[in-house]
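Subject: Protein record for review, amino acid sequence with backbone structure tokens
Why sent: The fold of this protein is of interest and is recorded here as tokens.
Enclosed: The protein record, placed directly beneath this head.
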Amino acid sequence: MSSLREKFLRDGYVIVEEVFSVEDLSFAIESLRVVLLNGDRSLEDLELDQLILHRENQDHQVVYNAAISLGSSAGALRLMASSKLFNLVAEAGGCALEAFHAMPLMVNIQLPSDNRFDYKWHQESTFYPWCPDILNVWFPLLRRSSPELGTMSIVPGSHTGGQREPVREMAGNFLQLVSPISEQELEQQIAVEINPGDIIIFDSNLVHRSQANSGRLPRLTGIGRFVNMRTQPSFRPLYKALSYEV
């Protein structure tokens, strides 16, 4: 058994450095920028941070849709395919590479001094009950993740007890599935601090949360999810064909 697999089983997560190249990250970011511009040439001179804040002031749905759309972009496909990401996920998950399917890559955009869309303590498994063995990858796109600029906090080893019964909470239209957590676990939490290019792979039952972005600029993180089709209780496609009416 590899040391990466051993650490993943023990702690519920593993951090791997320098998985993505600067060039591939930049290309993915540019794909996001194209969607945010939406053909408006008057906004082309804005830096990405400024463009995000400008669109957010206009309509949050525009920013949300842009973040979701990254998964079908050439930038996201190049980022995933040109790196060693798939091999690392397969090794951590203890699965043959050909059995893994990737869900669409998405971006989480955490706005400065705005915690409306920050997740409380939760497990990914509660959001994906149809997939007991989903593996998750989280990584910064623009700048280092830190407690000051916003990041993710995790509780090492919290995956070993399996899925916890969540408490459903609504924050506007935002559903929270909050996992119960003990005082001892709160004391053990770790803030993830990694650089662009680095990733953290974590178990679906690892308890984690968002740490607020107290900086002045948006925080952008990529989120990838991978499904082991050999352990699926029943097969379901991760993508559905688009339909239209003539």
